[in-house]
């Protein structure tokens, strides 16, 4: 590294940074795999659609945790808000799916903006508990407002119209899968753009060293709030996708378990990497699905073991492990 | 003419403990000024008050004649105030070049942009690279900061602050933790800074202070003991007693 | 009027008993998170283990209640030392997220293991005859077991404080909590200190789990179900504090009970709203260091 | 990174291939969706054991050459989205002929529209949401509804029970509200007075503050609905801690409060508690004695059978009879026709029937009291309300 630095480094260092945002061929791999899965495993499409939704949800956590360093256990608040928004619209006569997503994004984003403005002044454990507490309060409110939300029975009577007026959400989940895949792809493009923008770089700066960001004149609070609200909107869209494709919304959409398991999936894949969710979520959900079918009673034991193995052998998630291996290989010759 | 930086009656209490006690201080334009004092004299607290990391209990802070007491840190930076830290405070996981780019991006007001890729603004990267070249660390541009030896990181610390093109620069023990063989580089860089930057150097190392500073303020127990030229300070009996005496 | 007074006394009393259990379990978590910087979400596993050991000894082998509690305390303390050496130690100083992942993995495994060993049902906890029924104090009667809980809790709290204030072990812990680097530099073997502190915290959790089995029933999912409450106590009390969780548990235990009594329709909101308010007012917790 | 993703998909592919290979033509498949993990795992355990026991005892009754395969799936608790996906997969991937199980009403309500769309006969072994059978013509229920239990219980409490003033304390979720509404209507119609009511958050571990309110109001009795398990145990502890028995306040409720499998864990506190229910394992009916004996042979003494297990048993009984009635070719519409009016005089809980109009169960409703029999607590049935229909469906006729 040093050898090449002396002479040709000037262009190299600058060029590398200037090109960091360009799409690399391997970045298309997950998408090709997802398209292939549609044709290879037609009977797994319902699980596939839920995996895609979970990826979107986990991606939203990655943006705030992995890039802005905001630890949260309450992201389900926004997921649930989005799910209920789309669900209530569909139950009251407006079942158009795409505008449902937009409404969900708006509601969840505003909720993120409002709650973020209050809680983002805190850090660490306090912030973690505040996010959790807000989600719990929202869930309790949804339970209390049984007349509107259906309470613990879940929201009944959603009627989602065919997608683009043409494609029914059928039993086999084909429409749902394609719909989720397209939405995820578009939002991934947006997220990717943000991550590589100066704004995204400054978020990384906040994660790496908040004190220094203040000292270089960065409006840290505002930056954190913006990404928090944006991630909330993404979570809301994920929630709306689940509501529309399963035609059902329950209190569990607001539950702490959803936030917790998304966090786990993200850590397995690798935090602070745009592709962590694409590795962690399918791995965890497919493993869970397989374990749960092989051993419906004690599958959690095997999932637990998997987590501990990841921690012991793949600190920084699987992508972190892969990166270390690549670097080691790069050093050897 | 207004001072580059001025504090009037600046106080800070932690409970019953006064860590800053009615500090009146003036940093003239283009000054080479040192702030010294024994351990626990409140030097770093003073820096934190001036930059806005701490809220004062009483008193006012003015930058270029404008009252900034109520402004958050970021706004003060926009008024031309920059600092370095006593302990390296850097983006350790990012490359040296990116560290400097972040500062320059904030200065140019492009850091809030969510649309255009960061890499497409060549002007930021080129400027950052040029800054690294001036400080002699361009060959480390692509390495993550955490892989650099501490002394080299000290230079990045300076480069980030200089990326803000400050009018007032607070240097909190710029050579702390650096082997004496390498500290010369840092001193050379500080000496060669543009004359219109007002420098306030917080320092323990007396050799450094007497080499760099043209005025010295001595802080003891949160209050200004005395201010003067190096010769005056060196000859002051009280300073010898509380400060130099302690060191002997 | 006297009926209202009786209700208030009753609420305060029951809230206090609940608070004692919360404190015993949470104090160890506060210390591991504050002193060792370890986010041990699996802390409730030790509390549950204490309950399982005690109920098994009492129900399965007819071991007397005091012995069963002591056995739970010691067995879980010893078991936690093994886990600390094998697993936790590897992750000291690792990033918080790895710690979260590891401790969640531990919860999952313990839930399945408990289900395998004890079955899915809650474990019955029958206090011994001398702690059952009502305890008549002349002016009014109190449930005997909850009275015992309050007394036992108070005794443990006192012992704990005395131990931390008066013993060398306590002084070392306090030194290490205040400034770990400094403690190391004056020759405190923080590795061993951590092991013992971890074991003590876990054993206390086991004690709380065992004694509190009458209020928080012992079942395989215990560690997961009550995690949020333990975390709230720690966050509100302040990390690394011994006193903080005590006052937090007291506040939350009594206020929670009181507000559920007064406004049952908003019962579940209250503890969250209180937590929200306290953490916004004092983000470092009631007794956390700034 | 590419290859890593590839490994995952490859593993999934192999698993799928294996799953497909294990299916064979003459097997009738029943997808069983229950909670096997998490806090409520004990409920899934009861129902699964009831089902397995029926298959063990009656497996030879199936038509020649027909075999039955249970495909078990864990819905992990109250989790409608997961339950719905599992049902979707059981239907599209495993091509099940029946769906059964279903503990949680929200999960069942989420699945019901699927059963209608895919025409898969679905038997609820527990989920009690009263409108469930209205959502799909392919759903039948062999458990109970809370209206079916609590409305007549309210009537009984105000008349024969001799209670004048009752306080209602129920868990703050849909079944709790249904139980409260049903009891309240029955009780008030028969001249009783409801003093007040309180809804208790489902997650709450401590019932003292709520019961203190009840105590302050000095009713004759408190009517309770809480989920069975430790909630019920915690409620009984709070009842005894507050010394409410001495204050002359009786505790009455639905069978969920004192399920047979939990009674051994509850100490002596529930003695004298009066509940309404559909099944007690202490009942002396021959069919029940045989059931309990078979259970003990199979599973030992550790966990006795409760009403949930009977829901599992009767679901299998219904499925077996439907298979027999359709000669081993369970066409969905023929199955539903066979189930309409299906009677089983030999259920452990006594005679049961599927109402041909509503596909809901018609059964005896028992009033029971907890008593000590041979050193153990037991729910002793002392009054029977014969062949009771779900009253809600009569009170709320279908809108169209």
How would you describe this protein?
The complex is a heterotetramer of chains A (333), B (248), C (290) and D (400). Chain B has 248 residues and is α/β, with parallel strands linked by helices. Chain B is built from nine helices and ten strands. The mean pLDDT of chain B is 87. Chain C has a domain at 30-225. Chain C has a two-stranded antiparallel sheet with strand order 1-2. In chain C, strand 1 and strand 2 form a beta hairpin. Chain D contains twelve helices and 14 strands. Chain D has two domains: 23-144 and 284-359, Rossmann fold, CATH 3.40.50.2300; 147-277 and 366-395, Rossmann fold, CATH 3.40.50. Chain D has 400 residues and is an alpha/beta fold. In chain D, strand 8, helix 8 (230-241) and strand 9 form a beta-alpha-beta unit. The longest helix of chain D has 20 residues, at 2-21. Chains A and B meet through helix 1, helix 2, helix 9, helix 10 and helix 11 of A and helix 2, helix 3 and helix 4 of B.
Short description:
The complex is a heterotetramer of chains A (333), B (248), C (290) and D (400). With 333 residues, chain A is mostly helical. Chain A contains 16 helices and no strands.
User: Share of helix among residues of chain D?
Assistant: 40-55%
Low-confidence stretches of chain D: 1-6, 17-25
* Beta-strand percentage range of chain D: 15-25%
Largest sheet composition of chain B: 6 strands, mixed
SSE arrangement:
The complex is a heterotetramer of chains A (333), B (248), C (290) and D (400).
Chain B: E1 5-14, E2 17-27, E3 32-36, H1 43-51, E4 58-63, E5 66-67, H2 73-78, E6 81-84, H3 96-108, H4 122-135, H5 150-162, E7 168-172, H6 180-191, E8 198-202, H7 206-212, E9 215-220, E10 223-228, H8 230-235, H9 237-247
Helix pairs in contact in B: 3-4, 3-5
Chain C: H1 2-35, H2 43-61, H3 65-86, H4 96-118, E1 134-136, E2 141-143, H5 144-166, H6 168-178, H7 180-185, H8 190-211, H9 222-225, H10 227-237, H11 243-262, H12 267-281
Antiparallel strand pairs in C: 1-2
Helix pairs in contact in C: 1-5, 1-8, 1-10, 1-11, 2-3, 2-4, 2-8, 3-8, 5-6, 10-11, 11-12
Chain D: H1 2-21, E1 27-34, H2 41-58, E2 67-74, H3 80-92, E3 98-101, H4 105-118, E4 122-124, E5 139-141, H5 146-158, E6 165-171, H6 174-189, E7 193-200, H7 208-217, E8 221-225, H8 230-241, E9 250-254, E10 274-277, H9 286-299, H10 307-325, H11 332-339, E11 343-347, E12 350-354, E13 361-373, E14 376-388, H12 391-395
Helix pairs in contact in D: 2-9, 2-10, 3-4, 5-6, 10-11
Which characteristics define this entry?
heterotetramer, C: 290 residues, mainly alpha, two-stranded antiparallel ribbon, 12 helices, 2 strands, 72% helix, D: 400 residues, alpha/beta, Rossmann fold, 2 domains, nine-stranded mixed β-sheet, five-stranded parallel β-sheet, 40% helix, globular, disordered N terminus
